[in-house]
Design a protein that fits this description.
- The chain is α+β, with helices and mostly antiparallel strands.
- It has a domain of about 70 residues.
- Helices cover about 25% and strands about 20% of the residues.
- It contains 14 helices and 20 strands.
- Strands 3, 4, 5, 6 and 7 form a 5-stranded antiparallel sheet that branches.
- A hairpin with a 5-residue loop joins β9 and β10.
- α5 packs antiparallel against α14 and α7 crosses α10.
Length: about 550
């Protein structure tokens, strides 16, 4: 359940915040809302439970404490997580050794509903996704026991088995790695690709065609080291190389330009960029900063912020719930359980929906939430944009999540790409390509990639409206950082709240000709100010007709 306070602020046209005060942050958090990026914790947290929580059942404070514990763990705030338990010293020692010993970076958690036990304790089940560096995801289920304290507060009742059901005083986990096989690859024109020439492809080439690093997590006896069972293995995918270089859809020129743009404009922050062809989904560039390690461009899990308004707008247009010329007021604030807000000086009385889109007005979009059913946004994302279906692009990827909102506050947040909605640059580049073409094409990195997706094309009228709105955002709205580029560029900015102690992530998606691009800059504050310069650098470098 997700509650947001002071929702994400609209983008200024110059990509900066209004006013001289330090940026206030929304989505104040005590609770984990869903998935967190494996490279850096990107998750919205809830301040308590939603205003529509059932009065019966377990004490909401117990669930809030459980989610806060998982939120701290996912964000590597281990002392804070340990302090929420009945044995802080032991808890911190175990959390440290578990994460470091298994090379886990950025664990991700999803909670289920709390269960009240007969003895007055509460149990909160959860699913863990543990990204093991360089290998893949280890998923399992566990549960947090919570016990009420003498002062009426709740704490996680510490036991080794809450970390993993089979972790005990006699058994622990051990990670074993096998030496990775080298993979030769070429771009779409036959040019050789390598991590030396294109450093950002290092995490991509390591898994290309299913020939990635191999390894396993074993449960072993703490004294003898004898393996009791194998919990998970990595690297068992089929080998597509057949003794010759893997031919990819990448374009060496686009890849090099993407890496240069990140190096020049991301200012050393974690960032990722994807460029793909609109007409067939073939990936031209997939770049990460830093260049080695986690492939955040395809496997990251981020709240997409206002770039998600492309999907929200599609859902509204599909059912004639709004038209671009309709008046949809854009007030400074709107309270739905908690207060959502725009930039302090950003409000547009009497604004049309077109203005709401181009100025990225959060309150206007949230005010339209009753025109969509609770599960309708997710259904549109899946049916028309392929988000949440299983993609087979040629390397491991995260393919998005749009859960049904658990209350009205979370539904409001979902309208603007927050709550538990999760995406990454690969997904948002694909969303942009689908919006401007009308047809979803599964993104692909290798020729002949399996495609099990099933989608429906957007109506031509909706596509025309989306294209016009994206173009107007460049000419008149928050994406004017791209103004002046040739080729009729269309775009959408996004600012995604993360947590109380992190700056917002900056997003920008764009299309020109047959190319769609998406970029995220972690803690970039605004989309126009951080991701915007990266995308502009890329499009200014590459000729309009060089889409492969």
């Amino acid at each position: 359940m997700t509650v947001h306070v002071d929702g994400p602020r609209n983008e200024r046209r110059d990509g900066r915040r209004h006013g001289n005060r330090p940026p206030s942050r929304g989505l104040r958090a005590l609770a984990l809302t869903g998935l967190v990026t494996a490279a850096a914790t990107v998750v919205a947290y809830a301040a308590g439970l939603g205003p529509f929580a059932d009065a019966d059942g377990p004490d909401p404070a117990a669930e809030a404490q459980a989610r806060a514990f998982l939120a701290d763990w996912s964000a590597n705030r281990l002392p804070s997580a340990a302090a929420r338990t009945t044995r802080p010293g032991t808890a911190q020692e175990v959390l440290d050794s578990f994460t470091d010993g298994l090379d886990i970076e950025g664990p991700e958690f999803t909670t289920a509903g709390p269960v009240e036990n007969g003895d007055g304790t509460v149990t909160v089940p959860f699913t863990a996704r543990m990204p093991v560096t360089g290998l893949g995801i280890w998923s399992y289920r566990s549960a947090l026991p919570l016990r009420e304290q003498d002062d009426g507060s709740w704490k996680v009742d510490w036991t080794l088995s809450l970390i993993h059901p089979r972790l005990s005083g006699t058994a622990k986990f051990r990670l074993e790695r096998e030496e990775a096989r080298s993979v030769e690859a070429t771009d779409r024109h036959g040019a050789l690709l390598s991590a030396d020439r294109h450093p950002s492809l290092s995490p991509v080439l390591a898994h290309l065609g299913g020939v990635g690093p191999r390894g396993a997590v074993h449960l072993v006896d703490r004294v003898t080291g004898e393996v009791e069972r194998t919990e998970t293995t990595f690297g068992k995918n089929r080998d597509l190389t057949a003794g010759k270089p893997v031919r990819t859809t990448l374009d060496a020129d686009w890849q090099a330009a993407a890496e240069r743009a990140l190096a020049a404009r991301a200012r050393g922050r974690n960032a990722a960029l994807v460029a793909l062809r609109v007409d067939d989904g073939e990936i031209l560039a997939l770049a990460n900063s830093p260049a080695s390690g986690f492939n955040r461009a395809a496997s990251g899990t981020y709240a997409p912020g206002s770039t998600w308004k492309i999907v929200t707008t599609s859902a509204l247009l599909l059912k004639d719930a709004v038209a671009p010329g309709d008046i949809v007021n854009c007030p400074k604030y709107l309270t739905v359980g908690k207060r959502f807000q725009n930039v302090e000086t950003s409000h547009h009385p009497g604004a049309t929906f077109r203005t709401d889109f181009t100025e990225s007005c959060n309150t206007a979009f949230i005010s339209l939430r009753d025109r969509l059913g609770d599960g309708e946004l997710g259904e549109v994302a899946r049916t028309y944009f392929g988000v949440g279906q299983e993609w087979h692009i040629g390397v491991p990827s995260y393919d998005g999540s749009v859960p049904v909102p658990q209350d009205e506050t979370e539904k409001a947040a979902s309208m603007i790409g927050q709550g538990r909605i999760q995406a990454n640059p690969l997904i948002m580049a694909s969303v942009t390509a689908t919006a401007v073409s009308g047809t979803f094409h599964q993104p692909s990195l290798i020729e002949g990639a399996e495609d099990t997706t099933r989608t429906t094309s957007l109506p031509r009228e909706v596509v025309g409206q989306l294209r016009a709105l994206l173009r107007a955002t460049v000419t008149d709205g928050t994406a004017q950082v791209l103004a002046g580029l040739p080729g009729g560029v269309g775009a959408k900015t996004g600012t995604a709240e993360v947590s109380d102690d992190q700056d917002n992530n900056g997003w920008l998606v764009a299309h020109r000709g047959d190319v769609a691009v998406a970029c995220v800059v972690e803690e970039g504050v605004t989309g126009g100010g951080s991701a915007g310069p990266v995308v502009r650098e890329l499009l200014a470098t590459m000729p309009q007709s060089s889409a492969g």
